[in-house]
What we know:
heterodimer, A: mainly alpha, MetI-like fold, disordered N terminus, B: alpha/beta, D-Maltodextrin-Binding Protein, domain 2, four-stranded mixed beta sheet, 19 helices, 10 strands, globular
Amino acid sequence: MAVTAVSGAEIRRPVPRLRRLEDERWLAMALLFPTALLLGLFIAYPFIEGVLLSVTNQRVGIPGEFVGLDNFVKIWNDSIFRTTVWNTFWYTAVTTVFKLALGLWLAMLLNRHFKGKALVRAFILLPFIIPTVLSTFAWKWMFDPTFSVINWTLFQLGLITARINWLGDPDLAMTSIIVVNIWRGVPFFAISLLAGLQTISPELNEAAAIDGARPWNRFWYVTWPLLLPVTMVVMLFSVIQTFADFQLVYVMTGGGPANATHLFATYAYQLGIGTGLLSEGAAISLAMFPFLLIIVVVQLLYIRRVETR
Amino acid sequence: MVETKRRNVIKLAGSAAALASTGMAGILASGRTPAFAQQKTVHWLKWVDFVPATDQMFTKDMVPAAEKALGIKIKLETVNGNDLQPRITSSIQSGAGPDIIMSFNSFTHLYANSVVDMSDLAEDLSKREGGLYKYARAICSDGKMFMGVPWAVIGGMIAYRKSWLEEAGATKFPDNWEDYRALAKKLKAKGRPFGQTLGHTFGDAPGFTYPYLWSWGGKEVEADGKTVVINTKETIESVKFMTGLWKDGMDEGGLAWDDTNNNRAFLSQTISATLNGASIYIESLRKPEQYQTEKGKPLNTDILHAPLPKGPAGQFGFHLLQSNMLMKYSKNQDAAKEFLKYLHTEANYRKFFESQKGFATPCTAKWESDKLWDADPVMTPYKVAAKLGQAIGFAGPPNAKAQEVLSKYIVTDMYAKAVQGMPAEESVKWAESELKKVYV
């Protein structure tokens, strides 16, 4: 072997250990390494494991065999899964539209000068700061079939005569979780868009005002185009998070009534953990991936177009 | 100083690699922790008991006494019942975790490959205590092995308001579904409906819908555990009756209830009857000042219990059966077994039994005649919970497939869908198609 051939001819000289780092390529590698390691361990590895899991028939405690795409065929024929897909899209679409509209509106208001601005801005963030499980429990109480404070208020105001079954009716249950998601998500939009608004020079708006542009025109032709890149990034984050939401639904309805509020994550959990069908659970989680990928790619392409315009 | 040579570095790296490749696996394979902690530790994971006195009894008395008697260390951990499954899954998949884990119902069948056979302990218990009930045997054993040692049954009975029923002309709780519906209708007219969840909950929803289905003569699968037979005249009849019952006599919020909603609704006097463990009554005993009837009497004097009514095909119950599984990955199987034996000695188990005051029913016949059941007549109906119970999956075995049906809430959702307006035939057909995907 080559090693034995050169072993006798060892040349001693001091190794300049850090010399290599002077080369930019090596330095870049060294600096990237910790991040790459973390990403590899906590994102790439679980993802690959998930893919491998989804093509076996593994159950908890029973090592599975390779079954190809059987699990995907199975979930495709599963009526609960189809409901889940529809639910997830509906949930994501509706909440995103409302979060954007309300978040933008709030950001515009907060961008004005008024007394106690800092305090109000801090308060706005509260829904976003409180741990989701905790705030969702509070909401659960507000929608409680028997003790709903919302029902109580409506009843006292004389607007209803019978209790509204917030979480028991399929459509109302979906509406309820959508409301809670919007409540939780608006601050993120508001604060991010506010940061975006503050990068827009006031002079542009003033110039437009001097030229006689009305407030709506100033917003539409000056503010909105400049805010668009930030908006798109915020939407991207929000869509990904909403699509993969778990805690909120798990706490509020557990996917019920009769699967009317199941999302990908909750149904994957129910099958993977509740039933021990790890591979099918993994397949459901992965089914999210192509949908998300398309959404993300489209959005990223759009962002690039906006930025280069 | 030792000069660093390339060869040394390679050697060092080699041994490091060897260590890394054996690593935890090596340590685990050798079966002993390196150098310290030689005293054996047994880790027991159980649910947070609905009767707080029991958990106090364990941590203050039983566990210290067991540590002394057995010369081991015992780590008792309690988690919310809903969190047991994620813990079991992650423990089995990672091959490390609690030595003994409490199982609910058919978890035993679901995790059969990852637990140690406990036949010796279970059979010994059966011999000593007048025989294990059929229900406990079906859930804990697959005929070849015992996947868990039967611990107790948390019985589900209907808690009802004596005075309200009397006002509606009923001297005792109805024993068939027709009378049940008629009475519920009368009470609902007075703003005091019956309450029942049809939501995604592990306790009260299947505790109602399964026995209800069986009592009408419906079953999900034949005894072969393969042939799905849900779509029958009997099942459709039961679904139609449920839809009417819901409108006539039930609190319509029940579709969204979890396992605690009916407790709150009953204690705040918005419903007159609900299927539950004894926790409503026990809570009202604990706080007689807080829970009072509209006439100012303690609520606990106005609560009685009754089993679910009969249907055309008989009377059934489905209760939460708890057992303790010894995990295969455990490194302290002997010590853990000793601890389980210790818990099941008559004197020790009695401490648990008495602390529960009837909330938990033991799984063996001997305890049925215990004097504890005479102490409080309100609790007496619970003494036969384990005896009358029937396991999920009926008429098939309560195996992993039956558990899958349960955790997908197929039977419960079949009723929930109909109550929400789907025609009975269609909801049964939906359930049939879902069941066929499970029982392939």
